[in-house]
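The record is passed on directly below:
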Amino acid sequence: MEIDSNPQREQLCQAAQQLWQRGLVSGVHSTLAVELRRRCYLVTPAGRRAAGLTPDDLVAVDLQGADLRGARSPVPTHWAPHRVALDHGMRQTPEDIGAGRGRAIHATALTHPPRLLAFAAHATASGANGIKLHGHPAVPILDPADETSLLAAIKTYPLIVLTDLGVFASGATLDATLAAIEDAEAAAELTLTLQRLR
């Protein structure tokens, strides 16, 4: 039985390459994931640059991050926020989502947008637990090891800064997930520009 389809692999590779071209991922430390079916996810591999990924490089994993073909799997520290978000998304009913008790989550991304991370570093050094950007919703800053706080934030926020790990986004689709990252980085650039003009 085929685990996934080639169009899904192509889409995930294109997304990873676009993030790399825009400078929103760095080195080999980013991870993108999309839900293929219940408890099965297509993931960019650990230790590979986003710029050169091919469809054959992608890995199908279960919710715990174990490779379904037994070859390789994501770095466990990097997979933890994906697992928390995707598990939350899998458990949501339309009623939960309609009542504001959760969000539909079928795609996740751990990235490194430089301006947003600069704001996060400044906020953390100042003792703040979030970032406020011009014209953009607040972005919380969390310890990635605190899964209780992470789950609580994921229920509300499409974008979270994970201390010493990167910027984590989650959404109903891969496009929505990537748009959250791109919008926040654009808001960070606008905020920097406005600060320079003051």
